[in-house]
Inverse folding.
C-alpha cells in the first residue's frame, strides 16, 4: 500500500511537472503573441498625426489636470518613448500643475506647441524646481505661457533649443541656461515680473536673444555672468539684439561672457543701469537708452569693451561710467538731456580708454568727468553744458596717496570749456549676485 502510494505520488509529480512546463510554454506563447500584436498595432496605428512606420508621434493635451488621460504629463511620457520626432499639442487653454513634470526629451526632437489662441501652464502649486526641464536636444517651445513658478520656467540643459512667441510671467527665472547648452534661439517672447528673465552662467555658442520684451524684472532682464574672464565679443558671443527692456531693476548685467548687445531699446530701467558690464568680452552697439533711469551704461573692469553708436537721453545720472576699464573704446555715441555725460574713473595709463567722436548735448551738470584716469579724448563735442564741459580730478586713495588725472585731448570741441583739478574722496562700486 505504501509502495503504491509512493508510485502514485511519483506519477503525480511527473504529471504536475509536465503540466507546469506546458503552462509555461503556453504563457510564453501568449505573451509573444501579445507583444507581436502590440508591435503591429503601434506600427499600423500610430498616435494622431504620426506616419505609419515612421515612428513620428503627435499627442494632444486635452485635460487641464496634473495627471491622467489627456494630461501634459502623460503626453511628455509618450513623447519621450517615441521612435521618431514628437509633437505635443496643447489644446486645453490651461494646465494646472501640482507636481513636477517629467523632463522634455526625445533623441529625435520634440516640439511643445500651444494651439491658437495659446495655452497657460500655472505652476504656483509647485514647491520648487523647473517647470519645463529640457534635457533632450532639438527641442522647441512655441506659444506657451508659464506663470507663477517658484523656480525656473525653463531649465535648458541641451543643445539646439528654440523658444518662440511664449510668455514667462512671475517666475524666479524665465529661462535658466546651463553651461552645456549651445545653439539657442529665444525670439519674440515676453518676460514680465520675473526676478531674472534669462540667465546664462557661461558662454553658449551660436546663441541669440532676439525681439523679446523684458519688463519689471526684480534683478535683471538678462543676466550673463561667469567667474572666468571672457574675450571681446565676436562670432561666438551671445547675440542680444532688437529687444525691449522696460522698468527692469537692470536691463542687462554681463560679466566675463562674450556678448554683443545691439539695437535694443532700454526705457525706465531703475535704480540700476540699463547695461552693467563687469569684466571683458562685451560690445554695446547702436542701442537706445532712455530715462528716467539713473544710469545708462556702467562698465567696471571691462577690459577691451566696445561702446559704439548708442543714443542715451533723459537719464538722471551719468549716461556712461567707465571704471578701471583698460583699453575700452567709447565711440560715436550721442548723449542728450542727461544729468551728466561720461565719467572715466581710475583707468590704466598703460592701456588708456579711448573716447572718439562722441556728442554730448545739454548736460544738466558736467559733460565729462575724469577722476584719477588718463583717457584719450579725440574729436568729441560738448554742446550747451549747464556746468563744465570737462572736469579733471585727482583721486585720493585711502592712506593719503592720490592718483593723478591726465587726459589727452585731441581735436575736441568743448564749448565753454573749463578744466579744473581737485582731489576726490575714495568711492567704491561693486555688483553682487542677484
Amino acid at each position: 500500500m505504501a509502495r503504491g502510494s509512493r508510485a502514485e505520488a511519483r506519477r503525480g509529480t511527473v504529471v504536475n511537472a509536465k503540466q507546469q512546463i506546458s503552462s509555461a510554454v503556453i504563457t510564453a506563447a501568449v505573451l509573444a503573441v501579445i507583444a507581436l500584436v502590440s508591435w503591429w498595432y503601434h506600427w499600423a496605428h500610430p498616435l494622431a498625426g504620426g506616419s505609419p512606420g515612421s515612428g513620428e508621434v503627435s499627442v494632444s493635451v486635452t485635460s487641464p489636470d496634473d495627471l491622467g488621460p489627456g494630461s501634459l504629463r502623460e503626453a511628455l511620457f509618450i513623447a519621450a518613448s517615441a521612435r521618431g520626432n514628437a509633437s505635443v499639442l496643447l489644446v486645453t487653454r490651461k494646465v494646472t500643475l501640482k507636481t513636477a513634470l517629467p523632463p522634455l526629451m526625445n533623441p529625435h526632437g520634440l516640439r511643445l506647441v500651444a494651439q491658437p489662441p495659446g495655452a497657460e501652464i500655472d505652476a504656483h502649486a509647485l514647491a520648487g524646481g523647473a517647470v519645463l526641464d529640457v534635457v533632450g536636444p532639438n527641442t522647441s517651445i512655441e506659444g506657451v505661457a508659464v506663470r507663477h513658478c517658484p523656480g525656473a520656467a525653463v531649465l535648458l540643459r541641451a543643445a539646439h533649443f528654440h523658444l518662440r512667441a511664449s510668455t514667462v510671467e512671475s517666475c524666479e527665472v524665465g529661462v535658466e541656461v546651463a553651461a552645456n547648452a549651445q545653439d539657442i534661439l529665444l525670439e519674440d517672447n515676453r518676460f514680465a515680473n520675473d526676478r531674472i528673465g534669462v540667465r546664462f552662467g557661461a558662454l553658449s555658442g551660436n546663441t541669440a536673444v532676439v525681439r523679446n520684451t523684458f519688463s519689471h524684472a526684480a534683478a535683471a532682464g538678462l543676466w550673463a555672468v561667469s567667474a572666468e574672464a571672457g574675450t571681446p565679443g565676436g562670432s561666438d558671443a551671445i547675440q542680444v539684439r532688437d529687444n525691449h527692456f522696460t522698468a527692469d531693476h537692470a536691463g542687462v548685467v554681463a560679466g566675463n561672457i562674450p556678448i554683443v548687445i545691439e539695437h535694443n531699446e532700454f526705457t525706465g530701467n531703475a535704480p540700476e543701469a540699463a547695461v552693467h558690464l563687469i569684466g571683458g568680452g562685451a560690445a554695446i552697439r547702436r542701442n537706445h537708452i532712455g530715462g528716467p533711469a539713473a544710469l545708462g551704461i556702467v562698465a567696471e573692469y571691462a577690459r577691451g569693451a566696445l561702446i559704439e553708436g548708442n543714443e542715451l537721453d533723459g537719464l538722471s545720472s551719468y549716461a556712461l561710467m567707465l571704471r578701471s576699464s583698460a583699453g575700452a573704446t567709447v565711440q560715436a555715441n550721442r548723449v542728450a538731456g542727461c544729468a551728466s555725460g561720461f565719467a572715466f574713473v581710475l583707468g590704466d595709463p598703460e592701456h588708456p580708454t579711448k573716447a572718439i567722436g562722441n556728442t554730448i548735448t545739454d548736460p544738466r551738470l558736467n559733460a565729462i568727468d575724469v577722476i584719477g584716469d588718463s583717457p584719450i579724448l579725440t574729436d568729441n563735442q560738448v554742446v550747451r553744458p549747464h556746468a563744465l564741459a570737462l572736469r579733471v580730478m585727482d583721486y585720493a586713495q585711502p592712506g593719503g596717496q592720490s592718483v593723478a588725472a591726465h587726459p589727452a585731448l585731441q581735436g575736441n570741441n568743448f564749448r565753454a570749456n573749463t578744466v579744473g583739478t581737485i582731489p576726490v574722496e575714495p568711492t567704491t562700486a561693486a555688483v553682487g549676485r542677484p
Summary: The CA atoms of residues 186 and 209 lie 5 Å apart.
